[in-house]
Amino acid sequence: MPSSPVPGPVRHVLILGGTTEARRLAAALAAEPGLRVTSSLAGRVAAPRLPAGEVRIGGFGGPEGLASWLRAHAVDALIDATHPFAGTISFSAARAAATAHVPLLALRRPGWVAGPGDVWHPVPSLADAAAALPGLGRRVFLTTGRMGLAHFAHHTDLWFLVRSVDAPEPPHPPRMATVLDRGPFTLDGERELLRAHRIDVLVTKDSGAAATAPKLTAAREAGVPVVVVQRPPVPEGVPVAAGPDEAADWVRTLRR
């Protein structure tokens, strides 16, 4: 995997993101002798699961603010382990790393792949997902989180079951029930949700997480079509690791 040269030993790593992979990576790196690990969480979840090592919560003030933080805290390597759909911070990280001359790695879990029996409708955005719904179903299981509900608020004739970690705020669809829950989810649980709420279309983002994949199996079994919002690309030129072990090896390589 390509990496940028480091003008000295790596003593401090900054990990962006509160994903499962980010926490696993923080745990692995925190066990490395002589390595300081800081994880930065966006603060959008009320009670986040805290990773090993040091933790900061909140934004940086754009790429310039992040570059300043990297310099001020002597960060030697930056890992973007944010959610695959956190596109803004990923491009800010790329600009900040280039400005501060800090090597950058993107940690991205592989996306989902449709299998036999899946009825998937790939779309490039939440707005396109909302536009696709009228021809697919009337009772929607919406699992894209609470931040993008405004895209679906105009659907007054559709009913939505919305699942999110924290309670959604307006604007959102007028006909809506909410399930506050956090993965991992079980296949039996997803089957029951589809059955109990008579779901006839599922909307999801291609997050790629195994913890949230059972809904896809349940939809396949029930013959429910799935609108899949495709993830944005990683900034050009940024190397990508598919898992925490590969990302940890990248850091160890920089330390040699």
Query: What is the string of SSEs from the N terminus onward?
Result: EHEEHEHEEHEEEHEHEEH
Q: Please estimate the helix content.
A: 25-40%
Based on DSSP secondary structure assignment, what is the total number of beta strands?
Answer: 12
Radius of gyration, in Å, reads 20 Å
Helix count, per DSSP? 7
Content of β-strand: 15-25%
Distance between the termini: 15 Å
Find the structural class using helix and strand composition. alpha/beta
Strand order of the largest sheet: 3-2-1-4-5-12
Q: Give the rounded overall mean pLDDT.
A: 92
* Overall spatial form: elongated
Biggest sheet record: 6 strands, parallel
Model regions low in confidence, pLDDT < 50 over at least 5 residues: 1-7
List descriptors:
disordered N terminus; 6-stranded parallel β-sheet
Textual characterization of the structure:
The protein has about 260 residues and is α/β, with parallel strands linked by helices. About 30% of the residues lie in helices and about 20% in strands. The protein has seven helices and twelve strands. The chain has a six-stranded parallel beta sheet with strand order 3-2-1-4-5-12, sandwiched between helices. Strand 10, helix 6 (about 215-220) and strand 11 (about 225-230) form a beta-alpha-beta unit.
What can be said about this structure in brief?
The protein has 256 residues and is an alpha/beta fold.
Give the SSE layout.
Layout (H helix, E strand, L loop, with lengths): L11 E5 L3 H11 L5 E6 L12 E4 L4 H11 L4 E4 L6 H14 L3 E4 L12 E4 L2 H7 L6 E4 L16 E6 L11 E5 L6 H10 L4 E5 L8 H9 L3 E4 L10 E2 L2 H12 L1
Parallel strand pairs: 1-2, 1-4, 2-3, 4-5, 5-12, 6-11, 7-8, 7-10, 8-9, 10-11
Helix pairs in contact: 1-7, 2-3, 5-6
